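REQUEST ID: PR-0412
SUBMITTED BY: lab tech R.K.
PRIORITY: routine
TASK: structure prediction, single protein chain
INPUT:
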Amino acid sequence: MRKLVYVRIVHTSADMGSLGEKLIQETISKIGREKWEENKRLIEKFWEELEKEIFQLNLDLEHTIIYQDGLPCGGEIGMKIVHNTAELGSKNYQIIEKMVAKGAKITATENPELLIEERNLLLEILKDSSTKEKEEAKMKYIAKKEFLLEQRDAYIASRINKTLDNEQTGILFIGAEHNVISKLNDDIEVLDLVKH
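STATUS: complete
OUTPUT:
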């Protein structure tokens, strides 16, 4: 029997790579520094609790495959991405590093073309431009967001369906807006870790 632990995550600025700093500034300008600091503390608490919960599952990490939202490659290049992002302060990627150190393996999870398309749409919103151009960029992103999310979810599910072997457990770290479960094969038993 194949098993998948489904972990809904909250992204931090460290997870966003080169977009992170711009997203922080954009958020602070909208909600204020005090509210942003409060949100940051809540997100840190979320990750602390989630890490405890994951390791309390006592997964056989030697037979665990890690699937990560936004990770387009596995192997050495994938581990370099994981390591670099963990060093930037990503709690998500720090958990992955701990799991890999105990025998888990990462695998390519996302379609690079879809990630690049979404990133480019976000960059258009964040770049210094007039209010009109920003609004046009936002409308363009909103128009494509659902389609891209659906395409990404289908791709992620197909990766899990194809790469998760019998007697293995997968763990999928995925943003809360995604819906991958409905696209998984019926022979995959899902443990949905819902955090509140």
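NOTES: The mean pLDDT is 91.
REVIEWED BY: pending
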